[in-house]
Amino acid sequence: MKHGFIGFGNLAKAIYRGLKEEKGMEFAYFARSKKEEPLPYCETMDSLVAASDVLWLAVKPQDLSGILAQLKECDLERKTIVSPVAGKSIAYIEHYLGKKQLVVRIMPNLAIAYRKSVTAFTANRPNDEKAREIFALLGKLGKAVELEESGFDLFTSIFGSGPAFILAFIQIFKEKMQEFNLPGPLLDELLLELTQGTTLYFAQNQKDYSIEELIRNITSKGGTTQAGLEYFRTQKIGNHFEGVLNAARKRSEEMSRNGG
């Protein structure tokens, strides 16, 4: 299978990194300028399309219309279009390329580079053999889930933007840990150990216990954890964090309405 990336920014690089060890795959990319990358660079859109079976639309939402206008002039017969572009629907892509064109819409995150992405999948022909091949491929790069397109805005806010929000929460811990007067790299190591240990605790117990039960297992009556959790709940910090997700979802919905 030959994969062509239209644009080669952070997400395209992450997808390439996750896929590059798969056997029987070839890669190329087309971008405004050649980059220092170990895969072939195509100087024109036509040459990339000719060299690819699967075309990944790895561009910013505001650039998608121009890219689709160029693609419309290419021979896309037997090609699969895969779009991870936030806020841009399959109907938006079909407006340029036609309803006969196989279009797969996905929403991954940058953990796809480490084969740990949670990725939403939908397609205009979800049972098409080539669409199923893409779904199977995404399953090798983490967890892939088939989702109605109406759920993509919420999915984007939780799983697409989620890693940034989780890191922002971890950053709060790091800022507080400055009081230890320890070197920054050591603080990062300690935070990494904390987050990995917590994730492992969740992974080892999630089949038998709810998250609330796991929290209770850490909490001693009248202790430090209880004091912190009481503040968390009385100040309704969870509502504020939900507001972060709602803001991201709202922006995705706005992008969809504005020509999505």
Write the layout of secondary structure elements.
Elements: E1 2-6, H1 10-19, E2 26-30, H2 45-50, E3 54-57, H3 64-71, E4 80-83, H4 90-97, E5 102-107, E6 117-123, H5 129-139, E7 142-146, H6 152-160, H7 162-177, H8 184-205, H9 211-218, H10 224-234, H11 237-257
Parallel strand pairs: 1-2, 1-3, 3-4, 4-5, 6-7
Antiparallel strand pairs: 5-6
Helix pairs in contact: 6-11
General description of the model:
There is one protein chain. By secondary structure, this protein is α/β, with parallel strands linked by helices. It folds into 2 domains: 2-148, NAD(P)-binding Rossmann-like Domain (Rossmann fold, 3-Layer(aba) Sandwich), CATH 3.40.50; 162-256, ProC C-terminal domain-like (ProC C-terminal domain-like fold, Orthogonal Bundle), CATH 1.10.3730. The protein is built from 11 helices and 7 strands. Helix 6 packs across helix 11 (237-257). The longest helix has 22 residues, at 184-205. The model has no long low-confidence stretch (mean pLDDT 95).
